[in-house]
Write a structure and sequence with these properties.
Blueprint (H helix, E strand, L loop, with lengths): L1 H25 L3 H27 L3 H37 L4 H30 L3 E8 L9 E7 L10 H14 L3 E4 L9 H6 L14 E3 L3 H5 L2 H9 L4 E2 L3 E4 L5 E4 L5 H5 L6 H7 L6 E4 L6 H6 L4 E4 L10 H8 L5 E5 L2 E5 L17 E8 L4
Parallel strand pairs: 1-12, 2-3, 3-4, 4-5, 7-8, 8-9, 9-11
Antiparallel strand pairs: 2-12, 6-7, 10-11
Amino acid sequence: MIIFFLIVFTVYFLANGYLYYKGYNVIQAGRARVLYTILFVVLASLFTIGRILERNHSGVITDIINVAGGFWLAYMLYAILLFLISDIVIYLIRLYGNTSPQQIEAALFRRYLAVNLTTFVIVVAGFINALTPVIKSYDIYIDKELDGRDELVIAAVSDLHLGSTIRKRSMKKLQRLISKTDPDIVLFLGDILDGETGPVLRDDLLAYFDCYNCSDGVWGVAGNHEYIGGIENTVPYIESHGITILSDSVVVTSSGVNLIGRKDNDSFRYTGNRRTALEDLTGRADMTAPVILMDHQPLDTDQAAARGVDLMLSGHTHNGQIWPISYLVSAIYEKSYGYYRIDNTHIIVTSGYGLWGPMVRIGSRPEIVRIVLRTKEP
């Protein structure tokens, strides 16, 4: 973890240094450069400051700092990409073009304005996209029987990241979307909380969720952020609002579904205890009945298929959340978003409902998943 944070800090410092130099280079007046330096340092520090303050005091001010710091992360990413592209263009012009130094200097200033304006438009578009979640629907057929019915309607939600960024308005919208799915069972696939419980407890954010008509109940698993916030704090709060967290355990719902919930793969970092092997968990289940596996991260998919799991549900990836990070996520996880099938095992990886860091989504949509699990082909 120390090595990880050192790498992250180094990359963040170098990225901000690159952006700082781009602005400093086009500002000529000494006083303007001083003001620019102060403003830049404040903006670049907001996200870190907000996270530190959140641990000791949760309030509207820390929420604002965290949200502003998140927007800076999105700005940083796209400004760097655009500056790098324009640097290549300007280098080629200098190498092959017939351009004077004065013309180049004027072009640098215009470039700086154009990059910032374009970045602003991208971030605003991503912000609007992040505020418009959708319902993603799947029909799944399995060759097994449910108890007393032909189908089961599942609402699956992952990565709410409740905290400074995702708050009451988002929870009220989530409640409306879940109600539209008319579910028999609701499954939370981890990272319900962003980490620290303070911002969540302040307005009791899970109080805005209920599913009294869910005949098969409301279940969930802990994600890596539940462990980051302290599993001894996050899970009791979640369960106090009617969401039963399965931790390497198996339950049978009223429709006869064997529901398996795994510990998050990163739990070992925080507890020192490794999660139970999937082989052992499926050994506790009735594999002749419908079997649904919840695993926050889309891992061990081949094992799930080999063990005869009917439906595996995961999140965690956010489908990259911000392009081009989606390419990195696809490289890390073989199955990073959408529907897959291995033999008779159906696998769905959702992009999640909430956000981490920036209130921005580019190239991915926030979503909840509606699955109709049917036992008979139409």
